[in-house]
Structures are given as C-alpha cells and as structure tokens.
Amino acid sequence: MGCGPxxxxxxxxxxxxxxxxxxxxxxxxxMRNARLVVTVLAxxxxxxxxxxxxxxxxxxxEQIVPNAxxxxxxxxxxxxxxxxxxxxxxxxxxGSYGSLIPLAxxxxxxxxLMANAFVFVSSVSSMHTQxxxxxxxxxxxx
Length: 142
What we know:
flat
C-alpha cells in the first residue's frame, strides 16, 4: 500500500485484516512478540538513558555551581541544589505535557517558535543578572 490511490485488492486485504482482528483471531506473524520486546526495551532503555544523562550532567556541577554562587555572595545548601536538580526533570515533564494543546492548535513549527521565546527570555535574563549586582537584580541567579 503506497501513498497513491488504493486498488480494490488493497481494500479487500485491509477489510479482511480488520475483520480478522475484530473477530478475535490470533495474529499469525511469528516475529510479532520479538518485535514487541525489542520495541519495549528500546523505548524503556532509551528514555532512561536520556533522563539519567541529564541528571548526571547536573550532578557533575554539584561542587562547581555552589562554590561559584558562594563566591558571588549567594551561597546555597546541598538541599537547595538537590531541589534545583529535581526541578529540572519535573520542568521537563510539565513542559512535555503542556505542549500538547499548542501542538494540536498551532502545529509543530509554531509551537517550537513559541518555546524558543522562553529560551530567548531566559538568555536575556541570564545576561541581565551577569551585568547587574545581586542586590539590584530582579532575576534569580540559579
């Protein structure tokens, strides 16, 4: 079955397949279970690898960021650093669920452009805090 107009034979095969699945007959593909197992493993290992890599990247900064903030006059505790590290993953979860409505209404391209507006604002915010003193800044350092 291609993208072109379907033939009568394709329609008959599609109808037979739908009817067989609705009648409760077993699928006769011998590789079905193997493909299912490989798919489940790929999705579960792939997503946990990405999540673990992001968390590990933040953990590598555990000594650098608190020391740099303490030198700048804004010390944070290990508990605060753990909260920052946890919020990184929670923010990703909220962001992925929050993108469903704009994706449905605006499409992928416009949704990505709207998401980049947040990146731009955060970049300007970071630049603002870098060039102003901590007492005058309205944006957080971390």
